[in-house]
Amino acid sequence: MALFRKGYNCSQSVFLAFCDECGLDFDSAARLSSSFGAGMGRLREVCGAVTGMFMVAGLLYGYSDPEDQEGKTEHYERIQLLANAFEDKNHTIICRELLGLDQGKDSPVPELRTAEYYQNRPCEDLVGTAAAMIEEYIAVQKLQKQE
Question: If phi over 0 gives left and psi between -120 and 50 gives alpha, with beta otherwise, what is residue 39?
Answer without folding.
Answer: left
